[in-house]
């Protein structure tokens, strides 16, 4: 079943925005528009596969080609056939009957399992006083464990859970048109759950309603009761007792003490054994906000379940992918200042994961394993997220048609960018008639978009200048992962041509220049080190040099680069004279820099030119501009250094930089980079680069301007280094 918007647009058009949409489309274009082809409704990429390098057995065993053809199901669509009964009365009471038939998994003996756990046994053996009786201490500890468990949770009440599922089902049907779930994803998760091992779900929340939606989806599909942690201070005793019956967890106060505190050791051990917290459940507030905000407009929702994998298999294989690493300051600062031209042959070490209590209790090697597992999960979640129509529309208006575009042209551009997104293995969250899709996207963006009627009968769509551009930039960021490799490559080519031809020169003049493969690798590596890892989302098992080759391959595949055969060199397509050298036989798989050459030196002799096809200039600029909000925020941060009031806290520096970005945007009109998240990323990157140094103080850690970048000369070098990747 296809998702979103297209199937029920007639219902949505009867909403409060009906007048605006009717006036928008009463232009009399007289076009006969077909559905978006060839993909929408016919082909969708299967997303969310696990890492083949770190978990090859899970990648193969939990997947089958037939899974891709299962399609979508609506988890809130309950009919007579979903129950064991038939008849007129059943059709009226099918929601209630379906809820009564939900399977509630039986509860195990939690106190006994907690008492037998290794961590609790260590606490018992370490707390026993000399001369105590053999059965006295375990008896007292068992009572304390039961007290802590009583504070944490109680046994879920099956009837209350079924009643709650019925209420949530009624509520979701009032709120959403449908809740889509891919049956292939569901089949993989069920197959993993049937293996007998505990199923741990890691969620990336897209909405405040996830706290209600996700437990309902898992319970309704027979995957068990999701335990959600609550803050005990925000609930009354009566509400706390009810939520415990529904599977809620309440951490005891002593479990939040620091690790070096002697109090609460047993409480922290019990919490560690039972269920680490999944995050605060703010569903009640989300319900009120949604009922107030939507005002009768029902929307569609899709829940993505990525492919499960064995945690044991991951821990066994992930350690073998570790190599030498250096900080961003060691990798990039000498090159920025002009002290060196050689990029060290190591990976970047950049971890922005907060070091919390559970992480501090682990060894350094295990901490690194957990962080890299988080990056794998984040990579899978981003790859599984569908791109919405507003993201495609915002990207077109912001990066391809900044001065406006006629509606007749926008229709074709929307279809083109949708197909390009699907071709790159990313799914979209919409389907239907092209005209209706563009109509709906523009209606959602009507606060940031102006539609003007021209004398030819066409409509001119223009993004409104001002702070609304920052909202369009945030929406367009959803599209960046699909085109990230090409965007990095285009910015690297831009930096390589910056010192050779004028930036605003004709495309034909830029196409004359030969681009060496080694030079391209170098520029791509520099940009990879500069960009934050939470943006790149590189898998920890993938080396930067492999990613450089992927970037180059993407530029060739999309037609921006063409191979240039130099005199005397072996043709790129000539594989007859290749031989297996000793280097190739012994080179690790992660170190291959070119799939068609024996070593890096032979591949480095290849050259490329920019393609002269008519579509290439616009597509090249579009790719470069996808990264322009972040890169311009970094460049503005370099210009901010002499004006900043340092030292200051990390949040204070980010607030100062945000105010500077907003003030600068009022002058140059570039509001895309005036965003709090970009300001925070700039501060963190400059801290890792050694531009800002963190020093302890009585008020907490403070950021100082490092002596190296106190001079205006080095500040200008930093700004010039960043601006070489920015395309005007």
TrEMBL record:
GO cellular component: mitochondrial membrane
Pfam families linked to this entry: GPAT_C
Presence of keyword Oxidoreductase: no
Span of domain GPAT/DHAPAT C-terminal: 287-692
Entries under InterPro entries matching the protein: GPAT/DHAPAT (IPR022284), GPAT/DHAPAT_C (IPR045520)
Superkingdom of the organism of origin: Eukaryota
GO function term, MF aspect, one: glycerol-3-phosphate O-acyltransferase activity
Keywords from the UniProt entry: Acyltransferase, Transferase
GO biological process terms on file: fatty acid metabolic process; glycerol-3-phosphate metabolic process; phospholipid biosynthetic process; piRNA processing; triglyceride biosynthetic process
PANTHER family noted in UniProt: GLYCEROL-3-PHOSPHATE ACYLTRANSFERASE, GLYCEROL-3-PHOSPHATE ACYLTRANSFERASE 2, MITOCHONDRIAL
Name listed for the protein in its UniProt record: Glycerol-3-phosphate acyltransferase 2, mitochondrial isoform X3
Species of provenance: Hipposideros armiger (Great Himalayan leaf-nosed bat)
């Amino acid at each position: 079943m296809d998702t979103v918007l297209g199937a029920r647009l007639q219902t949505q058009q009867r909403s409060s925005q009906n007048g605006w949409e009717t006036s928008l489309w009463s232009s009399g274009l007289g076009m006969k528009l077909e559905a978006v082809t060839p993909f929408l409704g016919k082909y969708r990429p299967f997303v969310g596969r696990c890492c083949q390098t770190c978990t090859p057995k899970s990648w193969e065993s939990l997947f089958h080609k037939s899974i891709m053809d299962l399609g979508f199901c609506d988890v809130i669509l309950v009919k007579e056939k979903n129950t064991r009964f038939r008849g007129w009365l059943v059709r009226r009471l099918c929601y209630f009957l379906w809820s009564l038939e939900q399977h509630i998994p039986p509860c195990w003996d939690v106190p006994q399992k907690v008492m037998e756990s290794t961590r609790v046994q260590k606490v018992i053996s370490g707390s026993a006083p000399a001369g105590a009786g053999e059965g006295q201490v375990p008896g007292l500890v068992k009572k304390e464990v039961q007290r802590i468990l009583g504070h944490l949770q109680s046994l879920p009440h099956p009837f209350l859970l079924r009643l709650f599922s019925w209420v949530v089902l009624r509520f979701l049907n009032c709120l959403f048109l449908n809740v889509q779930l891919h049956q292939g994803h569901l089949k993989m998760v069920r197959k993993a759950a049937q293996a007998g091992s505990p199923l741990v779900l890691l969620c990336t929340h897209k909405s405040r309603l996830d706290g209600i939606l996700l437990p309902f989806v898992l319970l309704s599909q027979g995957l068990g009761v999701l335990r959600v942690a609550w803050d005990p201070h925000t609930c009354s005793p009566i509400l706390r007792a009810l939520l415990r019956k529904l599977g809620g967890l309440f951490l005891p106060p002593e479990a939040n003490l620091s690790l070096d505190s002697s109090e609460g050791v047993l409480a922290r051990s019990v919490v560690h054994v039972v269920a680490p917290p999944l995050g605060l459940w703010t569903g009640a507030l989300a319900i009120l906000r949604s009922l107030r905000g939507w005002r009768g407009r029902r929307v569609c929702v899709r829940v993505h379940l990525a492919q499960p994998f064995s945690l044991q298999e991951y821990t066994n294989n992930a350690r073998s992918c570790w190599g030498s690493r250096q900080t961003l300051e060691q990798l990039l600062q000498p090159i920025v200042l002009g002290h060196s031209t050689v990029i060290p042959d190591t990976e970047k070490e950049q971890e922005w994961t907060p070091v919390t209590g559970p992480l501090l209790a682990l060894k350094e090697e295990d901490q690194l394993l957990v962080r890299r597992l988080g990056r794998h999960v984040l990579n899978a979640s981003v790859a599984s997220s569908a791109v919405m129509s507003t993201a495609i529309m915002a990207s077109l208006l912001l990066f391809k048609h900044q001065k406006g575009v006629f509606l007749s042209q926008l229709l074709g551009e929307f279809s083109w960018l949708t197909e390009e997104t699907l071709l790159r293995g990313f799914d979209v969250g919409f389907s239907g008639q092209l005209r209706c899709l563009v109509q709906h996207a523009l209606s959602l963006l009507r606060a940031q978009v102006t539609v003007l009627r021209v004398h030819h009968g066409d409509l001119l769509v223009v993004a409104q200048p001002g702070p609304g551009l920052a909202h369009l930039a945030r929406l367009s960021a959803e599209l960046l992962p699909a085109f990230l490799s090409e965007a990095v490559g285009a910015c690297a080519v831009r930096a390589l041509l910056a010192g050779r031809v004028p930036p605003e020169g004709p495309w034909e003049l830029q196409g004359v220049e030969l681009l060496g493969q080694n030079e391209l690798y170098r520029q791509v590596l520099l940009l990879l080190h500069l960009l934050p890892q939470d943006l790149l989302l590189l898998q920890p098992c993938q080396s930067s040099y492999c990613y450089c080759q992927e970037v180059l391959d993407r530029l060739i595949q999309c037609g921006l680069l063409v191979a240039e055969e130099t005199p005397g060199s072996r043709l790129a397509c000539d594989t007859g004279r290749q031989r297996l050298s000793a280097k190739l036989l012994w080179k690790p798989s992660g170190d291959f820099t070119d799939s068609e050459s024996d070593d890096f030196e032979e591949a480095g002799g290849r050259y490329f030119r920019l393609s002269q096809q008519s579509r290439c200039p616009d597509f090249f600029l579009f790719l470069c501009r996808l990264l322009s909000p972040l890169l311009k925020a970094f460049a503005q941060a370099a210009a901010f250094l002499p004006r900043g009031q340092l030292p200051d806290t990390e949040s204070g520096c980010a607030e100062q930089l945000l105010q500077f970005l907003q003030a600068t945007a009022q002058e140059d009109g570039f509001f895309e980079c005036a965003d709090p998240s970009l300001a925070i990323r700039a501060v963190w990157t400059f801290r890792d680069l050694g531009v800002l140094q963190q020093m302890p103080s009585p008020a907490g850690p403070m950021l100082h301007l490092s002596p190296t970048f106190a001079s205006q000369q080095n500040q200008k070098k930093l700004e010039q280094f960043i601006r070489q990747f920015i395309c005007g």
